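Many introductory courses stop at the sequence. We go one step further.
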Amino acid sequence: MRMNDIAQYLDNTARADRLSGGVRLIPITTPHGAFNVWTKRVGNQPRLKLLLLHGGPGATHEYFEACDSYLPAAGIEYYYYDQLGSYYSDQPDIPELWEIPRCVDEVEQVRVALGLEPENFVLLGHSWGGILAIEYALRHARQLKGLVISNMMSSIPAYNYYAERVLMPGMDQAALAQIKRLEAAQAYTDPQYMDLLMQHHYVYHVLRMDAKQWPDPVLRAFKHLNPKVYIPMQGPSELGASGKLLNWDRSAQLRTIDVPALTIGAQYDTMDPVHMQAMARSLPQGRYLDCPGGSHMAMYDAQECYFSGLIDFLQELAADPR
């Protein structure tokens, strides 16, 4: 950025969240009461505002903190956001809240409160956040300037098929058998269960780094995961989805989302990169970003590719006067 652009990007004098360094608690209403969700703005760029939807469900914005190394230098204004039930937001113990339509309504309330408008609003959803972003786009496409679906397939049945036919056969079969025995016994909190997953699944398909070297933002996001949100929706198993998302499939509806869209996949992702490339072809204005060597957390293990492709897409949108 030029010096005058940097000055504009860093100018918070007119921003209502200046006192708190960009942090705002957004009040939202639900059929089961009123709550607050946590957001934080970084930067000042009226032409483009990126709202980040984290995964889980029930994880946190924290693993997105890698954005700080790339997006400010590109002049992109972006918003961290912990969804209801996540660590920095209210965490009501009300099972009826964990439904997709209610979550979509929450995103819309956050958009309105933050003042994100059709001429500048881009929504990025990663993993579960990708499901939420697709659902939001199906209901509120008119509010979007652009859409990014990161490391998420448009069909949970297709994801489960991929896990059964590709991911699990590629694992150490003795370890897989032990994982399956622990799942059959519902021993999901047994330390051996997570140890086996980390050694034989996570470091190959979730984040391709030695587990002892996983970045602090990722570790915090895992530490702060809310199982009271995650398990009812995703299900307890880490080798496929069940729960309320079991039959979710929006592949046939992608063709109705007529906004500039980017899907992001990676070579070793838990999500089928071929499927995500096909998603881009189904979206009327879609394109695909492939991250060779990356996995589900490609923003870390294929970082340069991930952010270079994302920034290119976002800067094209910012330059588009529509």
